[in-house]
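@channel sequence for tomorrow's demo:
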Amino acid sequence: MPKASTIKAKEGTKAQLLEAGARIMTEKGYNHTGILEILQETGVPKGSFYYYFASKEDFGLRIIDDFAEAYSQTLDEYFKDTSLSPLNRLRKYCEDGRKKFEAQECRKGCLIGNLSQEMSDQSEIMRVRLEEVMNGWRDRFADCLKEAQKQNEIPARYDAKALAEFFLSGWEGAVMRSKVTKSTKPIDTFIKMVFEKLFVP
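structure tokens (generated this afternoon):
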């Protein structure tokens, strides 16, 4: 059996490749991210890359999975914070996202959103996986909104899943618009309209 140190080193190399790949793909996109660039940045030999990943598409799928797993923990931090009401948890999620995006000078945006726009017509297997991730986020938002309805923060007559779908589409669209305008104004407008006009008792 391989030594624990060898296994740990291999896991570290794989994580290093995934981290570099996610960072570069977020900024440049899938098609403009080259395997050679990732290898040069990480110092990992080409043979090692293909030990972990069968192809660039496989690498992209693993990046999506890795990002989704990490982001699920981020959502836990917001939606399990019982010190805030459900609606305020969702608002804090948006406001913190806005601050992060502003700190990045309205660049990069959301990896899953970026890949969804770029790859949905190019790779069916990636499209399906991206849809699964987005649907998972929508369901987390829906759970939060259902809890908000139980606490009378928003009307119970609304379908929580439909509201969550609208919220996710609006948020991702606002981030995209902010990338184009190089301004957080689209995000600011989204937050104002959603929390001051739509999500009200």
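heads up for whoever presents: The two ends are 61 Å apart (CA to CA).
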